[in-house]
């Protein structure tokens, strides 16, 4: 299951207006580390289907979103709950680390 790509308008609507509990990976196609992390999120997406939403932002196409959060490098996974930023994971993270953060942010 591939991650839904977001542009700035969709991002604002889903994350802030709808306040959906969501993970958003900021990535780019040419990033080799990102290409290792994205499949992990795709696998976790099916596990948490219906509970949390998983999205993808291409930083090459959506530079304004990348800059809005003052991110340095990719991949970065940002966590949002109730329309509020709840933290992030950066770099080459594994499924256990992501699931720990999911528990911390959404199930605490």
Automatic annotation (TrEMBL):
UniProt keyword list: Redox-active center
Annotated Pfam families: Thioredoxin
Domain of life: Bacteria
Domain Thioredoxin: from-to ranges: 1-107
GO CC field: cytoplasm
InterPro entries reported in the protein's UniProt record: Thioredoxin-like_sf, Thioredoxin_domain
GO molecular function term, any single one: protein-disulfide reductase activity
Coiled coil: none
Family: Belongs to the thioredoxin family.
Protein name per UniProt: Thioredoxin
Naturally occurring in which organism (per UniProt): Clostridium chromiireducens
């Amino acid at each position: 299951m591939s991650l839904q790509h977001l542009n700035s308008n969709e991002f604002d609507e889903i994350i802030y207006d709808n306040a959906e509990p969501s993970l958003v990976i900021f990535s780019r196609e040419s990033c080799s580390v990102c290409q290792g992390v994205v499949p992990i999120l795709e696998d976790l997406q099916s596990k948490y289907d219906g509970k949390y939403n998983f999205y993808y932002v291409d930083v090459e196409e959506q530079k304004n979103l990348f800059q809005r959060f003052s991110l340095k490098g990719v991949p970065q996974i940002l966590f949002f709950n109730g329309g509020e930023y709840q933290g992030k994971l950066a770099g080459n993270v594994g499924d256990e680390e992501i699931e720990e953060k999911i528990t911390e942010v959404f199930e605490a």
